Amino acid sequence: QAVVDFERLGDHAAAFQGHDVGFCCLGTTRAKAGADGFVRVDRDYVAQAAELARAGGCKHFVLQSSRGANAQSRFLYLRVKGEVENLVQAVGFDHCTILRPAVLLCKRQESRPMEWIAQQFLGAVAWVFPTFYSVPVETVARAMVACVLQPGKEKVKMLENGAIHRLGKA
């Protein structure tokens, strides 16, 4: 494990060398980092990490994005997620897998009251529609590993929430 300073990520290029696969789940919230900080973390840091990984020999990059990601969106969150998807794809990995989960079900250390309320509601809805509104983070993690162990022929593969559920439970 290497601890890096994301504000000086280029100084840590050696940490990105010699890896066949890169997994990226980096992200923050607008509430925690402000609009500029959110863009810096969720787009700029991720894109720079992808570039360093590719330069270091990474062949397959797996990015956790978000359902509804769209570089043309009027909503900052979805626009930034769409922009970073485009930037990561442009890096030129042999394989790039982008997962677009819906609401992530997990326990967090910090308090996010609105997310907690949504998770309670969506947790109940998940009993009826288990793959539509949400996904446990453990399922996303298993899907990320599975897509590397069973790579397809396509250069870029997008996995929406239903596919994440299927792959994460296989």
Automatic annotation (TrEMBL):
Organism: Nicator chloris
Subunit structure, as described in the record: Monomer. Forms homodimers during oxidative stress. Interacts (via N-terminus) with elongation factor EEF1A1 (via middle-region); the interaction is direct and competes with EEF1A1 binding to guanyl-nucleotide exchange factor EEF1B2, thereby inhibiting GDP for GTP exchange and reactivation of EEF1A1. Interacts with nuclear transport receptors XPO4, IPO5/RANBP5, IPO7, IPO9 and KPNB1 as well as GCN1L1/GCN1 and LRPPRC probably through their HEAT repeats. Binds NCOA5/CIA.
Name of the protein in question: Protein HTATIP2
InterPro entries with a match to the protein in the record: NAD(P)-bd_dom, NAD(P)-bd_dom_sf
GO MF: catalytic activity
Domain of life: Eukaryota
A GO biological process held by the record: import into nucleus
One of the Pfam families matching this protein, by short name: NAD_binding_10
PANTHER family: OXIDOREDUCTASE HTATIP2 (PTHR14097)
CDD domains linked: CC3_like_SDR_a
Domain NAD(P)-binding: 4-151
Gene Ontology CC: cytoplasm
